[in-house]
Design a protein that fits this description.
Length: 298
């Protein structure tokens, strides 16, 4: 069991590492570019290698990259679909440069008049074509959504259908966001509801594919289908709900990444809150605050 945050890369990789250390991260998620822009500069290979090596030295592992929010692999707009596929292929390569295990992906929307089953086929095709272009071992992690609009991926069944359609199933994993699952209507805050949800996951895509939990409280009610993240224990899932989730035996080996509103003092509270609900017998040690190892000459 490892805990971390989605951390800003503003100011460069050293600043990113400093933020991760201050937040006591033992796992990490980042963007590799601005999340709402298509354009991006190439990664400096020396900087990327240093970042990956320093994360290993600091034992902040695993690392995940979140794809930008503009991607839409489910769309019927052929131009946007191709642009999204191409960007994902490039993101997989960038993620490999910094030693990430997976690229977390929102699957996209079929639009107001679109059909979800057609969108599912489009997602699978885009994933296959992006993976065909990249021989990096980095996986694509399909993230569940909250069910708003006509987004693809709100249920384990839809995620399982995409994996079944893919010609590269070995390169696909799953990321479950607790706030999204709760907003979709899965009562994961209660032992029975969590067990039923995980059983559904096992029977659709298989829990062996689950590689990451986005641990976020929900500002909106169960079944609201509204994606609004809250601080740990301060939303509708609540402290008792996270106690249920964190002590579930099937999730004890998972990395948990928090995507709570980015305020350093609140991130420190979130880390305390999520650690506090883990039974003492299985609670991992809190890492010390360290200095980023000095970088040698380039």
């Amino acid at each position: 069991m490892r805990f971390g945050f989605h951390v800003s890369i503003s100011g460069g990789w050293q600043k990113t590492l400093e933020r991760a250390i201050q937040r006591r991260c033992t796992a990490l998620q980042v963007f590799t570019s601005a999340p709402v822009q298509w354009a991006r500069a190439p990664l400096d290979s020396d900087d990327a290698r240093w970042f990956a090596e320093t994360l290993a030295v600091l034992d902040i592992q695993p690392l995940f990259v979140h794809a930008i929010y503009l991607l839409n692999l489910a769309t019927g707009d052929s131009g946007l679909w191709r642009k999204s596929r191409d960007h994902l292929a490039e993101e997989l390569a960038r993620a490999g440069q910094i030693g990430a295990e997976g690229v977390v992906l929102h699957l996209g929307s079929v639009g107001r008049r679109g059909q979800l089953q057609i969108g599912i086929k489009r997602v699978a095709k885009a994933l296959d074509e992006a993976l065909d272009r990249c021989d990096s071992p980095v996986k694509v992690l399909l993230e569940n959504c909250a069910g708003q609009g006509n987004l693809v991926g709100s249920t384990p069944e839809q995620i399982g259908d995409i994996i079944d359609l893919s010609t590269h199933p070995q390169r696909l994993g799953v990321c479950i966001d607790t706030a999204h699952a709760f907003a979709q209507g899965y009562a994961i805050h209660a032992p029975g509801g969590l067990a039923a949800f995980l059983d559904t996951c096992e029977n659709t895509f298989g829990l062996r594919r689950l590689q990451l939990i986005h641990a976020n409280d929900s500002k909106t009610a169960l079944g609201s289908r509204a994606d609004r993240h809250g601080h740990i224990g301060k939303g509708e899932i609540g402290t008792a709900g996270f106690r249920t989730i964190l002590n579930e035996p099937r999730l004890r080996e998972m990395p948990f990444i928090m995507e709570t509103p980015e305020q350093e003092t609140w991130h420190q509270r979130d880390m305390r809150a999520i650690r506090r609900v883990v039974d003492a017998a299985i609670r991992p040690a809190l890492p010390p605050i360290r200095r980023v190892p000095p970088r040698g000459p380039r």
